[in-house]
Amino acid sequence: MTPQLLALLKSNPLFQNLNDHALEQVAQAAHRLRKQDGEFFFFQGDPAARVHFVIQGKVKLAQTTGDGQQVLMEYIGPGRVFSIIAMLPKARYPVSSQAVGESEVLYWPREAIVSLNEQYPTLSANMMQLMATQIGEFQNRIRELSTQRVERRIARVLMRLARQTGQRLPDGVLIDLAISRQDLAEMTGTTLFTVSRTLKRWETNGLIESRREHVIIRQPHSLVKIAEESED
Amino acid sequence: MTPQLLALLKSNPLFQNLNDHALEQVAQAAHRLRKQDGEFFFFQGDPAARVHFVIQGKVKLAQTTGDGQQVLMEYIGPGRVFSIIAMLPKARYPVSSQAVGESEVLYWPREAIVSLNEQYPTLSANMMQLMATQIGEFQNRIRELSTQRVERRIARVLMRLARQTGQRLPDGVLIDLAISRQDLAEMTGTTLFTVSRTLKRWETNGLIESRREHVIIRQPHSLVKIAEESED
DNA sequence: TGGCGTCTTTGCGCTGGCGCAAAAAAGGGG
DNA sequence: CCCCTTTTTTGCGCCAGCGCAAAGACGCCA
Predict the structure, then answer these.
(1) Is A231 helix (H, G, I), strand (E, B) or coil?
(2) Is the shortest CB-to-strand distance from A213 to strand C under 7 Å?
(3) For residues A96 and A40, is the Cβ–Cβ distance under 8 A?
(4) CA A28, CA B218: separation in Å to the nearest integer?
(5) pLDDT band for position B67 (50/70/90)?
(6) Is B206 exposed, middle or buried (0-12, 13-18, 19+ CB in 10 A)?
(7) Which of A43, A92, A171, B38 is the most exposed place for a label (fewest CB within 10 A)?
(8) Which fold has domain B149-228?
(9) Where are the domains of chain B?
(10) Is A119 on the interface with B (CB under 8 A)?
(11) Hey, is B45 helix, strand or coil?
(12) A contacts of B84 (beta carbons < 8 Å)
């Protein structure tokens, strides 16, 4: 385990306030795993057995409905944890996780995490904190889906992505993630057609610029307005 | 603390597998609180300081959007816990909680719960389990809001309510909860008009029977069909 | 450089669901 | 039993967003 990796671990909320000894043990117990673009770490419905931590690349968490539609829950980038649910006995993964680009993770088998948890209450407190945050985010998303129109939801998702993976350009913010209209549709609960039309309109008005699978936000301010109010 | 109350506690997943001594201590630390119909236990945005447990009546958890719209998250009945988030330092309640009918709860101040948590790892494991369940339910709800049409969502909500508070009748299941069209709209992310029209249609077809603020499910089977497939 | 697969746009038609206003129905209290 | 409040229904108009099909643009790889 390299020092950089340790630092990455340390910077994650999940491992906050752990002393060096504890962190050492956490690192000891970790396994490393690399996947090619498009490969899956696990599938929705599998018995949940591992807690994951992204080192490199991106991981896409999506839920598939009975009739094959997808709902894209989240993109997880380096330094972030996913599938904490595997801490719990007898749980199943509620989503599938797919590598976006070549990606690498650390993971801990449940037994390891559980025993670390018993040794270090701090760890378990952190974990609860994370789950609580997650709950809060989902509640917000439910509220948005229930009360906001599509345009607003798309604006919000773009802003969130910009925050998470945004790269400042001289003239705007580039969302540094190959993201198709289809993906955006799955994140906002609409169709790729509507996303396409909406982005086109924004592009015409100079709010954004979009290439195939990429978006650059030119006027963040205007986007914020759309996200918050109803009209401009 | 009466024996019934202890039994109620004991039956809750949150207190599962606690030995009698632990349960005793949990009970010791609890406070009792009674509210009249419509009164609030706390408001969205308040610093989260108490974990609650419903003894009697019902509690309605709802989130209010900036522009005054409501999203109804959940009804909590006797024997269920809410606002676990108050375990965590510096959290705020993400919803408001309102008594529906005269209601009574037990509650524990954060310090009490935290210290119990440290003494009894079982408690903290249970708590995580609960949070995980919650997360799973929210994910489902997000998926439903994203991919299903209104009619199906209403059917699902009715079924859930029937499961949670359903009362078997000779000829159907009564949802034992005063629930207005407005409430159903807030639970399904639609409007009271659409709910009204949908229920009316179902009533005409004999699927349900509805009085003011009450619904009786006459043909659960047909409702399930609507909830699962697209058409009958 | 050309061909190919994927992603995106666009035209067209359609309808589910919204919003409002007003009437009707259902309770509840005095 | 009547009045007042709240909830529910209903008619009407409307449009955001969906779905499909087909064309177009892009990027990659050989």
Answers:
(1) coil
(2) yes
(3) yes
(4) 59
(5) confident
(6) exposed
(7) A171
(8) Jelly Rolls (2.60.120)
(9) 3-145, 149-228
(10) no
(11) coil
(12) 132
pLDDT tens for chain A, 232 residues: list them.
678 888 888 888 889 999 999 999 999 999 999 998 888 999 999 999 999 999 988 899 999 887 778 899 999 988 889 999 898 888 999 999 999 888 999 999 999 998 998 888 888 888 888 898 899 999 999 999 999 999 999 999 999 999 988 889 988 999 988 899 999 999 999 999 999 999 999 999 999 999 999 999 999 999 999 998 743 3
Length of chain B: 232
Distance (Å, whole) CA A74 – CA A179: 12
A197 touches strand C (CB under 7 A): yes
For residue B55, give the 3-state DSSP assignment. strand
Question: C-alpha distances in angstroms, A174 versus A198, A203, A217?
Answer: 18, 14, 6
CB B76 within 8 A of CB B106: no
Give me the count of residues in chain A.
Answer: 232
Q: Which residues of A touch B228 (CB under 8 A)?
A: 66
Give the C-alpha distances (Å, rounded to integers) separating B124 from A17, A22, A209, B17.
18, 20, 48, 11
Place of tokens 């439903």: B144
User: CA-to-CA distance for A209 and A172, rounded, in angstroms?
Assistant: 9
Give the architecture-level CATH label for domain B3-145. Sandwich (2.60)
Residue B147 touches chain A, beta carbons under 8 Å: yes
Two tokens at A15? 């491992």
Beta strand extents in chain A (DSSP E only): 31-35, 40-42, 50-64, 70-76, 81-82, 96-109, 166-169, 172-175, 208-211, 214-217
Residue B33 bridge partners (DSSP): B105
Q: Under DSSP, is residue A134 helix (H, G, I), strand (E, B) or coil?
A: helix
Residue at token pair 């945004």: A166
Please give the DSSP secondary-structure letter assigned to residue B92: B
Neighbours of B40 (CB within 10 A): 14
- The residues of B between 128 and 187 with beta carbon within 7 Å of nucleic strand C are 149-151
Domain B149-228 in the same topology as domain B3-145: yes
In the numeric block, which tokens belong to residue B64?
């209010």
- Coil, helix or strand at residue B101: strand
Contact B26, B59 (CB under 8 A): no
pLDDT tens-digit map of A55-72: 988 899 999 887 778 899
CB distance from B45 to chain A under 8 Å?
A: no
